[in-house]
């Protein structure tokens, strides 16, 4: 008997289930339960004394870097940020604990969403060994307790496929739109402005921003402008004006992160390039936020 | 845990993501805060269910806890072997002298709770106005029943 042994680089995944993606009940149920998983308050005002908004941005940027370097599933980062925000909305935390908390949230989100999750040891190395695996495991229980073990939170990613399947896009354009929308979602998760927005609105705004951005270079959608926004709003039961405002905010955040990127690069020839890209975010994924 | 040598996603040498964000971390404080937060989680659960989950004893409160001798559970959940065999389910953390440890044939999920009215003369908390004084029998047979009814409530409230 011969045994064949081969190494799989890619994670095996199930094929998309049309029954789930086209069924309106699934989308309606997601819309019904999504608000349960929002942080209870804007915690910089009412809960935290030590932690400032820029610190959340710092830890979020670090978490995104780790997730990208480790090629985590797209949902891991936004889900981890959801855990972080929900924890911080309830527990006053000193800033020295914030990186540990970020690591714990990635640990949990990765275990929930990935076939091969991040290990505690690896996450500790990413904190430059400022925390020990044992501490990470102890705090994992604390975070679980404070989140009431409600880990299967609804994230904007849950809405991407249901939205894309309901848009009249040429199917060959869908992967590009999806990729851009996912990038916008990650961008939103780094910015506290979006932490209290329902995930469906962030997803709808991200798809809208992705299509608008791409449309300037090539024809990706038969629907554009107001007609597109109206259809998007209808799909997720969002108010049209709210959706427009959300999409604009996403574009502003993208612009400012591109500007920040240019400053960090300090390279004249490159910044011209990036300036052009600002309205057409074809390369957002390559940007180190 | 996988062996480090077989790691499909190793940390790149000199990775910029390996960094300390907010200076040195005080392990002592970390451990103190961890203990305090864990204690508060236990206390929250205790207040919520008027049940001391550490010593496994019922306390005064909205719920009356009573011991049940078999819940009609599928065989899977029943202790199969000798008593000691299933004890590692609790992670070895439970004190062996726990008062919930009963003798004889029983399952570990051996307590059920019932919601009892705080004071009988208080009017029913129903938004529909006064109800008949007798209709105050909100009996739950177990904690899972309580969860179910609560969940249904939320669903029906939000459904458009």
Overview of the structural elements:
Chain A: Keywords: Cell cycle, Cell division, Cyclin, Cytoplasm, Membrane, Nucleus, Phosphoprotein, Ubl conjugation. Chain A: Interacts with either CDK4 or CDK6 protein kinase to form a serine/threonine kinase holoenzyme complex. The cyclin subunit imparts substrate specificity to the complex. Chain A: Pfam families: Cyclin_C, Cyclin_N. Chain A: InterPro entries: Cyclin (IPR039361), Cyclin-like_dom (IPR013763), Cyclin-like_sf (IPR036915), Cyclin_C-dom (IPR004367), Cyclin_N (IPR006671), Cyclins_cyclin-box (IPR048258). The complex is a heterodimer of chains A (289) and B (160). Chain A folds into 2 domains: 34-147, Cyclin-like (Cyclin A, domain 1, Orthogonal Bundle), CATH 1.10.472.10; 156-265, Cyclin-like (Cyclin A, domain 1, Orthogonal Bundle). Chain A has 14 helices and no strands. In chain A, helix 4 (53-69) crosses helix 6 and helix 10 (174-190) crosses helix 11 (199-215). Mean pLDDT of chain A is 87; it is low at 268-283 and 285-289. The termini of chain A are far apart. Chain A is 61% helix and 0% strand. Chain A has helices at residues 18-22, 24-33, 43-46, 53-69, 76-88, 98-113, 120-126, 133-146, 157-165, 174-190, 199-215, 225-235, 240-265, 268-277. Chain B is of the alpha+beta class. Chain B has helices at residues 27-49, 143-158, and strands at 51-52, 57-58, 63-67, 111-115. A two-stranded antiparallel sheet of chain B has the order 1-2. A two-stranded antiparallel sheet of chain B has the order 3-4. The chains are: A mainly alpha (289), B alpha+beta (160). Chains A and B meet through helix 4, helix 6, helix 7 and helix 8 of A and helix 1 of B.
Estimate the mean pLDDT confidence of chain A: 87
Q: How much of the residues of chain A is beta strand, in percent? A: under 5%
CATH superfamily of the largest domain in chain A: Cyclin-like
- Please give the number of β-strands of chain A: 0
What string gives the helices and strands of chain B in order? HEEEEH
Task: Determine the N-to-C terminus distance of chain B.
Answer: 46 Å
Poorly predicted ranges of chain B: 83-108, 120-160
What name goes with the CATH superfamily of the domain at 24-74 in chain B? p27
User: What is the CATH top level name of the largest domain in chain A?
Assistant: Mainly Alpha
Give the strand tally of chain B: 4
How do the strands of the widest beta sheet of chain B line up side by side? 1-2
Structural class of chain B: alpha+beta
Radius of gyration of chain B: 24 Å
């Amino acid at each position: 008997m011969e045994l064949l042994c081969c190494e799989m680089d890619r994670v095996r995944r199930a094929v998309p289930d049309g029954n789930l993606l086209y069924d309106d009940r699934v989308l309606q149920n997601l819309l019904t339960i999504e608000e349960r998983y929002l942080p209870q308050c804007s915690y910089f005002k009412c809960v935290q004394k030590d932690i400032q908004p820029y610190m959340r941005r710092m830890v979020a940027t670090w978490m995104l870097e780790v997730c990208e370097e480790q090629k985590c599933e797209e949902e891991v980062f936004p889900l981890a940020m959801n855990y972080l925000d929900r924890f911080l909305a309830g527990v006053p935390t000193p800033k020295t604990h914030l990186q540990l908390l970020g690591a714990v949230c990635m640990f949990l989100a990765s275990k929930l969403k990935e076939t091969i999750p991040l290990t505690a040891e690896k996450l500790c190395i990413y904190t430059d060994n400022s925390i020990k695996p044992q501490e990470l495991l102890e705090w994992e229980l604390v975070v679980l307790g404070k989140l009431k073990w409600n880990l299967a939170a609804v994230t904007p990613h849950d809405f991407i496929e249901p939205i894309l399947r309901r848009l009249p896009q040429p199917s060959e354009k869908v992967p590009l739109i999806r990729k851009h929308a996912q990038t916008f979602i990650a961008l939103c998760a780094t910015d506290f402005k979006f932490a209290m927005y329902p995930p469906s609105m962030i997803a709808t705004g991200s798809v809208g921003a992705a299509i608008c951005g791409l449309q300037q270079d090539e024809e990706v959608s038969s629907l554009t402008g107001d007609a597109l926004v109206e259809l998007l709003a209808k799909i997720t039961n969002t108010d049209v004006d709210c959706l427009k405002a959300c999409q604009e905010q996403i574009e502003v955040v993208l612009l400012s992160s591109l500007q920040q990127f240019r400053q960090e690069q300090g390279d004249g020839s490159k910044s011209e390039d990036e300036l052009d890209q600002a309205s057409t975010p074809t390369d957002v994924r390559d940007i180190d936020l | 845990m996988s062996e480090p040598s077989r790691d499909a996603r190793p940390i790149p040498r000199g990775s910029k993501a390996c960094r300390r964000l907010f200076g040195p971390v005080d392990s002592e404080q970390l451990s103190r805060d961890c203990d305090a937060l864990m204690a508060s989680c236990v206390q929250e659960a205790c207040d919520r269910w008027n049940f001391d989950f550490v010593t496994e004893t019922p306390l005064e409160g909205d719920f009356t806890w009573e011991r049940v001798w078999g819940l009609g559970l599928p065989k899977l959940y029943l202790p199969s072997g000798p008593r000691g065999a299933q004890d590692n389910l609790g992670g070895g953390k439970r004190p062996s002298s726990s008062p919930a440890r009963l003798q004889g044939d029983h399952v570990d999920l051996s307590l059920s709770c019932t919601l009892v009215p705080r004071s009988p003369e208080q009017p029913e908390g129903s938004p529909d106005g006064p109800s008949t004084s007798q209709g105050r029998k909100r009996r739950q047979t177990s904690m899972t029943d309580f969860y179910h009814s609560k969940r249904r409530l939320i669903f029906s409230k939000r459904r458009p």
